[in-house]
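Handoff note, outgoing to incoming analyst
You'll be picking up this chain. Sequence as last confirmed:
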Amino acid sequence: TKARIDEAMAELGFTPNALARGLASRRSRTLALIYPAMESGVGGTVAEFVRSASGAARLAGYHLVLWPFAAHEAEEIRDLVQQGMADGVLLMEVCLKDARVDALHAAGVPFTMIGRTEDVEGLTYVDIDFTRTTDEAVAHLVALGHERIGFLNHSAESHDNGYAPTLRAEAGYRAAMRSRGLTPHDVLSHESPAAGRLAVGRLLQADPGMTAVITMNEMATFGAMVELGARGLSIPDDVSVLSIVTSPGVGAMSNPPLTTMHAPGAALGRLGVQALLGLVEGTATSPTPELLPCWLEPGASTAPARPRPTVG
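Most recent structure output, in case you need it:
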């Protein structure tokens, strides 16, 4: 029986060889994670995702390997998958129009997007629900009496490149504000504290009476908080700060601790691998899209609004 074979293998110190198993099944037993080198490096949410994805792959008898290819390196991706280097691909940091998706289609390899393109017909993906997340962020602040709410987003480069989270969060924030009869003010910022200081300055220039700011840019958030303090504005008494799509533990890194909407990195990793394995092993009968919300983690950076003078 299998139990007796496993027992004998354990006594002999035998370890199954993944390559040999792959040759027997004509599979590599390898899943590739395509994650391009980003200006912000690898954040906590990505690390949480990778841990979860690698664990789910290992439980299913697969190895997860990293391929650091950007959208303009689609040819290299196609070459690797056509050589049988991976049974399936997890594609991260997706743009609305992404050449890597076309390359994977052309190569005929199973793939799942962590994120989604503009046209998702026939595609399997797991993504954050940016529309719901931004709406819930605005709703949280409106419930505290805020009406003058700014938004500090990712960089102009990510926007110009069609990076889906930047564009979807922008659209979601604007829609959430306008649906409540409020005027949106949003800015793009590089992923650095210095850039965050400049960005919140631009928001205050656009609306000197701003009483709250939503941020989706962790490094810039810390700079924005410093700049608010340098201008004599107390958090949260004068300006509330709410960070969305936030990595674990980030809220505790600031003074006061940030109120955040936590990114579901672990769930994205687990569900992404499960969806991919369904394609690789032929058990998925149709595309399985999943949209996951972020959840609110109260900190000390949001409070009821109080009017401020609008002179800069």
